[in-house]
Write a structure and sequence with these properties.
Layout lengths: L2 E4 L2 E4 L4 E7 L7 E8 L6 E6 L5 E3 L7 E5 L5 E6 L8 E9 L14 E2 L3 E6 L1
């Protein structure tokens, strides 16, 4: 499965952006898709994930402002980002993997497939 992220761009604090991640093929049952981000000089961090079942998980920094969702075909995952803050600026990566246990859902190395990243900048 190849993943392609898009939708990044420049925003001002308080604005919204919507990221998309398109999978090259319909993932198999049990596939989890997530979003991570990496700011300059920082480690890649978990943002949100959606399991095959539809259950969603968020980082504390994203909860209440970001929403992860997917289309019915389960080939595209979206990250709706509202009330953006300057600290949200980063390269955002979509990721996917099969057989990811719940305790690992926030760990980058648990994911097998990664998109190329899309840059989000937020000015104050």
């Amino acid at each position: 499965v190849q993943l392609q992220a898009s939708g990044g761009g420049s925003a001002q604090a308080g604005d919204s952006l919507r990221l998309s991640c398109l999978a090259s093929a319909r993932p198999s049952s049990g596939y989890t898709m997530g979003w991570f981000r990496q700011a300059p000089g920082k480690e890649r961090e978990f943002v949100a994930a959606i399991r095959w079942s539809g259950h969603t998980y968020y980082a504390d920094s994203a909860r209440g402002r970001f929403t992860i969702s997917r289309d019915n075909a389960k080939t595209t995952v979206f990250l709706q980002m509202n009330s953006l803050k300057p600290e949200d600026a980063a390269v955002y990566y979509c990721a996917g993997g099969g057989g990811i246990i719940l305790s690992s859902i926030r760990i980058p190395r648990a994911y097998d497939h990664w998109g190329q990243g899309t840059l989000v900048t937020v000015s104050s």
